[in-house]
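Section 4.2 – Deliverable D4.2 (structural model, holo form)

The reporting period included a commitment to supply a predicted holo structure for the target in complex with protoporphyrin IX containing FE. Inputs used:
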Amino acid sequence: MQGVARNFFILAIVYSLCGMAIGLHMSITHDHGQMPTHAHTMVAGWLMSAVFAFFYHLVPAARASRLAPIHFWLTTVSGILLLVGLFFLLGGNEAVEPVVAIGSLGFYAGMLMFAFIAIPAIRKPAGSSAGLYPDGTPVASTLKNMPAR
Ligand code: HEM
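Output (structure tokens):
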């Protein structure tokens, strides 16, 4: 994995460790008050970041986009604002609500940006970089070498 794909996968691992720690803390203390923070850290953090990582790994045209690093940083900063803000909000600190709101809007903007990067990249015609394996081998060349049935 390289570039944005690798960054997203490292981010995913960090989210999984933080989210599971919250899950374990809830189980041990029998206080499930942070359930939304745990669920969002695991799904919006671990699972979404891992999906982004594998998408950028498998589609070089998306990874090469100049928007891809902006997508990574927007998603990272807004996701941290959203999840850390949610943790304190559910802990009873209502003053952090604007932080959660800004994080949520930024996270949505990140997903919108991903749509602008991903959809054109998967619609590129065969022969463009979207038709390459991550090591640069054209997909068509390996299909040509398959034994005839
Ligand atoms: C160490 C591992 C984990 C522990 C100890 C743990 C613990 C918990 C606990 C105690 C709850 C609250 C249940 C409730 O109050 O009804 C919960 C909910 C949840 N967990 Fe985890 N969890 C773990 C891993 C995961 C993973 C890997 C995912 C997803 C990738 C995940 C996603 C969720 C979701 C979506 C909910 C909310 C379910 C609902 O809406 O009722 N958790 N977890």
